[in-house]
Structure prediction request, 174 residues.
Amino acid sequence: QRRVNIVTLSEYQEQAKRTLGNASMDNLIMGVIGETGEIIDYLKKVMYHGHPIDKLKFELELGDLAWYVVSIITRSELSLTGADISVMNPIFDPPTDLHEWWWLLWEDTTSLIYTDKEGDLTTVWSCVLSVLCRIREGADLIGSSLERVLELNTKKLLEHYPNGFEEHRSIYRR
Prediction:
């Protein structure tokens, strides 16, 4: 079992590139939509169906979303070098609970989806950073951190795809 230590977003971007393969922008956008939906569906069960929050499950879902968002940056030929995790703070007051947070996450991921179709890299960059801030806020709200979310995701990807993305591993993965 490998020890994974992610300190900067550029380190995470390098790890995420290992499994990007030839994923198209449409594939990545579908991933953002799907992962955001999974997070919101999970929170629906926690908030309205009486499910206890499973911190690890939530962190893993946040990590999956982070992978797609960071991969959009990579596919846009941009780099997260210099975008330190410690500066990924919200411009406005952070949400105080998961109910408020999921609405903000939905708004920001929707903005990213529509912005990408327009192809304006400056706006894509801004939207990606907003979604990464939301991921950090979600982690903070459950007593975790963006660093932990990225480390867990990197570890998961190393386990599932030790040689980088391979279609057969995706199809036959448990």
